[in-house]
Design goal:
Helices cover 81% and strands 0% of the residues. The protein has helices at 2-39, 43-61, 70-89, 99-116, 123-146, 150-167, 172-184, 188-200, 205-218, 222-235, 240-252, 256-269, 274-287, 290-303, 308-329, 339-367, 372-385, 388-401.
Amino acid sequence: MKQIVFTLSLAFIAATGFSQKSNVTNAALAYKSYEGSLIDQDQEQAVKDILEAKGYIDKAAVHADTKDDAKCLMYLGKINIGVGFGYAMDSSAFTGIDVEKTFKAGFAALKRSKEVDKKERYVDDVNGYANYWRSMMANQGITAYGEQQYEVAMAGLLGAAEYGDVIGIEDSMYLFFGAQAALMEKEYETAEEAFKKCVALNYNTAESVGFLSTAMKEQGKMEEAEKELAAAVALYPDNLDILIQAVNFYIDQGKNEEAEKSLSAAIKLAPDNTALVYTSGIIYEKMGRMEDAETAYNKTLELDPKHTNAKYSLGVFFFNKGADANNEANTYDFNDPQYNAKYDAKIKESKEHFAKSVDYLEKAEVEEPKDVQVLEALKSAYGKAGMVDKFKETKAKIAALKG
C-alpha cells in the first residue's frame, strides 16, 4: 500500500510540474496574442489577452517547479508590465489588482530572469524587449518634457530608466529629468525616489540633493530631508553647491545656527563669493551677533562697492543702533547725579549712529533711486537725524513713486 501511495504521489508531482510548464506556455501564447492586439489597435482584446496571460503566469510564478525558471520569470515580467499598459486602456477591467505594485514587480521579474538564466537562453529576449521599450518611452518622455507635458514626461523618462536598469544601463539623465517632471506634477513621492537614485549615482549631485530635499519637505519629511542634506555634506564636504543647498534649507527652516555653520564652511571654500558673505551678515543679525553682521556687510562692500543690499542693511543696522541708544537714554534715572552727562553722551552716540544710517542709505539710493523700501528707510533716518528738509524731500519722492 505504501508503495502504491508513493508511486501515485510521484505521478501527481510529475503531473503538477507539467501543468505549471503548460501554464507558462499558455501565458506566453496569451501574451503574444496581446502583442498582436496592440499592433491591430484592438484595445478591448488587448485587455482580455493580458488578463488571460496574467491568470496563467500567476499560477506558474508561485509554484516550486517554475517560480525560479528563467522563461517563467521573463513572461511574468512582460505580463506584469503589460498589466500597467492594460490599465491605461481600461482601468475598470483591473479591479482588485494593485496595478502599480504589479507594474513594478514586472521589472524585478525581468532582472531576476537574467540572474537565474545561467545558460543565457532568454537574456537576449529580455534585453531586446527592454531596449525596445526604453527607446520608445525615452523618445516619448523627451518630447513631452520639451512641450511641458510633465505627466507624460515623468512616465516616459522614469519608465525608460526602469527598462535601462533591466538591461544594466544607469540612465541618470532620464532619472533626473523624469524626477523634475514629477516635481512639476507634485508627484513628490515619485520625485523623491528618483532623486535618491540620482544622488546614489552621483549625477548632478548638488541639484539632486536640493530637489530631493524639496520633494521630502513637500511631504512633511523635514527630519529625513535634513538627514539627506547632512549626509551629502559629510560625503562631499568640499562641494560648494551642496553646502549652499544646506544653507538654504536651514534658513527656510529658521535654523540659524545650522545655517551659519554651513555658510561658514561655504565661505571658506569661496571667500570672495559676495552672496555668501552678505547672507552671513543676515544670519549673524538673526543670531544677535551684531559685530559679526557689521563685519560681513562691510566685507560685502569691499567685494562689491555697488552692492545695494549691503548698503541698505548697514543703513538699517545703524538706524536700529541709533534707536536703541536713544531708547536707552530715555531709561536713565533723573535723580542720578550723573544723569545729564550720561544722557548727553548716549544721545550723542545715537545721533552718530543715525548719521551713519543716513550715509549708507543715501549711497543705496544712488544705486536704486526708485526703490521705495530704501527711500522709506532713508526718510526715517532723516527724521531721526533732524534733517527736516531732506525728510520732506524724500517723503515727496515716495509719494510721487506711489502715484
